[in-house]
Amino acid sequence: MRILEVGRNVKQVSEVKLGDELELRIDVNQPYNVSQLRAGHLVASSGDGLDSLLLLDWRGCPPEPSTFPVLNLTPPNSMVARFKAFRFPSSPVLRFSLMMMFCDQLCKPSDCGNGQVSYGRRKRDTQASETKTKEVPLQLAIVVRSLEEREEIIASQSQISNSNNNNERSSRRLEASVIRNNEWCITWPIGLAITIILVTMQTLIVLGCWSFFRRSNQKVLNDRVTLNSDFQPRHVTWADHQ
């Protein structure tokens, strides 16, 4: 047994808002089929157990069809009834309890009057084809929120989401800052080493140029000295002065 939300995409729900169109569905698995089942004594009660309402009697007939209709067969093997979400003032929790009966062969539907036929449970039946084999209780619960409660929950979730987004942004900024600091700590020694290498290379280049120019100047001076020594006055003895 489960509660589905009726709409474009029918889906199982556990929390709805007041007035939503819902579907109570009972799915039957092999080896049984819906013709061998009867459902009756469906009771809705509040979460605290202080309030209750009979939705289907032992025959499967609704005392208040406007609140909850009869169970109908839906292929391939389901019993369904559509209703609008309601709740009790004492609690947003709405509990459903149902009694299922399995027949050996076929179970005949119950005539609820006013043209309504329910595939519910018959309390007493003399038909041999409806010999009772066993009864199984089914239960489930959903939460029915009022419009005001739903809006408050949505607003609260929005605030939590915004807070989480802000925390996530702050965390990302912190991580980025840590990463940048780590990168600086890693690259600073390398940068210092590169700077030292560049300064050393520049110093070597300057020293090399200075040494080259010094040698060039020294060579010019040496050449001048040699040239001066070659042109110093010398005593020449001529043959006719002998």
What is this structure's SSE topology?
Layout: E1 2-5, E2 11-12, E3 15-17, E4 21-27, E5 37-46, E6 52-56, E7 72-74, E8 78-84, E9 93-103, E10 110-113, E11 116-118, E12 132-145, H1 147-230
Parallel strand pairs: 3-12
Antiparallel strand pairs: 1-2, 1-4, 4-8, 5-6, 5-9, 7-8, 9-12, 10-11
Domain ZP: 1-119
InterPro entries: Celegans_DevNeuronal_Protein, ZP_dom
Protein name: ZP domain-containing protein
Distinctive features:
35% helix, rod-shaped, 242 residues, single chain, Immunoglobulin-like, membrane, alpha+beta, five-stranded mixed beta sheet, Celegans_DevNeuronal_Protein, ZP domain-containing protein, transmembrane, transmembrane helix
Overview of the structural elements:
It comes from Schizaphis graminum (Green bug aphid). The chain crosses the membrane at residues 188-213. Keywords: Membrane, Transmembrane, Transmembrane helix. This is ZP domain-containing protein. The protein folds into two domains: 2-122 and 131-146, Immunoglobulins (Immunoglobulin-like, Sandwich), CATH 2.60.40.10; 189-227. The protein starts with a strand and ends in a 12-residue tail after the last helix. Strand 10 and strand 11 form a beta hairpin. The longest helix is centred in the last third of the chain and has 84 residues, at 147-230. It contains one helix and twelve strands; from the N terminus they run ββββββββββββα. The chain has one helix spanning 147-230; strands at residues 2-5, 11-12, 15-17, 21-27, 37-46, 52-56, 72-74, 78-84, 93-103, 110-113, 116-118, 132-145. Helices cover 35% and strands 30% of the residues.
